[in-house]
Amino acid sequence: MGPMRTDRPVSPLAGRAYAKMNGIGNEILVLDLRSTPASASAEEVRLLAGAPGLAFDQLMAVHDPRGEGAEAFVRIYNADGSDAGACGNGSRCVAWYLMRGTGKDDLRLETVSGPIDCVRLGPWRFMVDMGRPRFAWSEIPVAAPLSDTGSADLGLGEAERFLGKASLVNMGNPHAIFWVDHLKGLDVAGLGARLERHPLFPERANISFARVRNRRSIELAVWERGAGQTRACGSAACAVVVAAARANLCEREAEVDLPGGRLSIHWREDDHVTMTGPCELESEGRLPAELFQQAGDHEDQHA
Question: How far apart are CA 299 and CA 290, in angstroms?
């Protein structure tokens, strides 16, 4: 291997502060890009997702606020570099990152899907307001008009037909929920990878498999678009409770158990959905310039 090149421009992300966190196992990287015009490219997001000690499901890039009353604007990326409209578990992590040392117990984040209000309930526990669910076929979105997004026939093939119809909800990003009797033994990765890219979903979709235990408890497994099978997905937990309540399968307030832990979801009378759960700090530091330099050298070798 030859010497490292020094004539390549250093990435504006080099030296930026980060916090590697998780929200009930949903791996999150909070990247602080305040006070700089820098933004992360899809290639840089994929690079960071593959870096030792930084691997994440979603990256929360924290920028200066764009409007009045917000603490920050947050752009959310999936591990494959694609944009994610919402991430409830990541929002709790960002809330912790921005509140620590300030004495504040609440703040507002701006996202492309709208504002997210966050409230601290304990040292590591937060409630976030994920906004209103959307049900219209054009808002989810799907590729063709549907009269009932609560019970959508995807015309599944032989391998998926046992899943039946799907409940479709947009909770800042598109969700398709399948109601199952058992999660044990279910091929979440295989089914999710195929259904994420179903022709009905022009922007792909998060695929959820939900088992309703009772009217206040749901078990959930999720395949996230752009991230794959994850231990938790906050927006999916919100979408599942909304869809279940809409179908009279559960109350408007319920607990959702995912592989990584439990979230408390409440579809309030004002139509907003709140999610309550913990977050955890795993490590923090600054992105080393060598990470981006080595990636560039690797590309040169394969040019």
Answer: 14
Indicate which residues carry an active-site annotation.
87, 233
Per-residue pLDDT of the chain (303 residues; tens, 9 = 90+): 344 445 556 899 999 999 999 999 999 999 999 999 999 999 999 999 999 999 999 999 999 999 899 999 999 999 999 999 889 999 999 999 999 999 999 999 999 999 999 999 999 999 999 999 999 999 999 999 999 999 999 999 888 989 999 999 999 999 999 999 999 999 999 999 999 999 999 999 999 999 999 999 999 999 999 999 999 999 999 999 999 999 999 999 999 999 999 999 999 999 999 999 999 999 999 999 999 885 554 444 434
Here the tokens at position 215 are 């009217």
**C-alpha distance from residue 247 to each of 37, 177, 250 (Å):** 45, 12, 8
Give the largest CA-CA distance in the chain: 64
CA–CA gap between residue 93 and residue 222 (Å, rounded): 20
**Over the range 181-201, which residues count as b (16 or more CB within 10 Å of their CB) and which as e?**
eeeeebebeebbebbbebebb
**How far is residue 285 from each of residues 17, 18, 19, 60, 91, measured CA to CA in Å?**
6, 6, 7, 15, 19
The model carries a pTM of 0.90
Q: What beta strand segments (E) does the chain contain?
A: 17-23, 26-32, 58-63, 72-78, 106-111, 114-120, 125-129, 166-170, 174-179, 206-214, 217-224, 228-230, 253-258, 261-267, 273-278, 280-286
* Pairing status of strand 125-129 against strand 114-120: antiparallel
Domains with residue ranges and CATH for the chain: 17-131+280-301 (3.10.310.10), 161-271 (3.10.310.10)
Cα–Cα dist 195/82, whole Å: 17
